[in-house]
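Supplementary Methods S3. Complex input for the glycyl-adenosine-5'-phosphate-bound model.
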Amino acid sequence: MTDKTEKSDLMDKIVSLCKRRGFVFPGSEIYGGLANSWDYGPLGVELKNNIKNLWWKTFVHGRDDMQGIDAALIMNPKIWEASGHTTAGFADPMVDCKKCKKRFRSDHLPEDTKICPDCKGELTEPRMFNLMFRTFIGPVEDESALAYLRPETAQAMFVDFKNIIDTMHPKIPFGIAQMGRAFRNEITPGNFIFRTREFEQMEIEYFVREKDWQEFFEYWLDQMHQWMDLIGLSSDKIHHLEVPDGERAHYSKRTVDFEYDFPFGRKELYGIAYRADFDLKNHMEQSGVDLRYFDDMSGERFLPHVIEPTFGVDRTLLAVLSESYTEDEVNGEIRTYLKLPTIIAPYKVAVFPLLANKPQLVEKAREIYNDLKLEMRVAWDDGGNIGKRYRRQDEIGTPYCVTVDFDTIEKDDTVTVRDRDTLEQTRVRASELKNYLREKIK
Ligand code: GAP
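Predicted complex, serialized as structure tokens:
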């Protein structure tokens, strides 16, 4: 963000750009929307998939000690009893305004507030509200058919623990990773895609011997920092919050929240928790299935402890967009661009014919476009003048624009490659373009 961009309206600008350029739309919009639901559009889904693929590549494919899974969203409801989610462990304190009927999380209001922040009406006493979405399996909607949409991806890693050790025979320490949707009936969703009722998580349960938990907690703290660096978040905007006793989730013996300076303030981006053997122990007791790990070197059988690094996908997107939204001045005009790291940008390159009505230019540009497309995500644009096309690509964060002009056809078979951030333009031989971009994108 430059000085020209006030923090207060940065969020409005990001939301507006997301809508205008097909990143994020309000959900169910033609029906007047649905409170705080959002749809990812053509550009948003590319950015999101790039983030998820990079995460999977980094933490699953890039490691020898990680197993990936993709479990069902609706699981046996006994799981949520064993995990503590059906009890007060997964509930937020809710208050209602007696006058305007608005509902708030009392822990989000200043301490001891008994007055509605909106209309100054009197607030009710706090009541605990369970965040899990309920549904019914089959045609009869009674208690025996009750099920829940998962409120975190984590539990599947514990429930599938035995299947993983029986089939993959991992050596401790090892992890199980999953990414996917989670649902929480949040009392006060808000701040665009920051807090929604349906969101995606990327989670790891890393199983260790109890004596090693501190070492691996520090190790994963560092791995999470490296990830944030990889996706371009600046370290001075990231802060550790050591969550004190009494405020941690019911399962955690130590939690560090990674807070990020979002345009609307410093808020939780990710977290890491030491869940000890809370989950495996409870699932072993409730299911009656032995979930102990057998170490064939030492002959020990024991319940591993677990370190859980957890990453919200939608908050990652929001942090990346906040970080990369930039305004500068070009030829006396404000230019808006997304300074996205190339590795996650929706398009890596855009190809233009200088003039859309000159068949030789279009043909040559198409040839280049089709060739590049085999290897990287490429945009095609032949609308309006070159300046407008650059602005359009800048706004969606395309790092390189390639223009085919008359020199390409008539003179030396070179094209112009323009850099989003430096605005530098370089002439590159068409035959060497792929290699040139390959190097840049690497
Ligand atoms: N398994 C641990 C767990 O679920 P959490 O702190 O409740 O921990 C993990 O959630 C991450 O999921 C958060 O750090 C955040 O990035 C994301 N998250 C949680 N609730 C969210 C919501 N309502 N909307 C968007 N993202 C959310």
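The first strand starts at residue 24 and ends at 26. The domain at 347-441 is CATH 3.40.50.800 (Rossmann fold).
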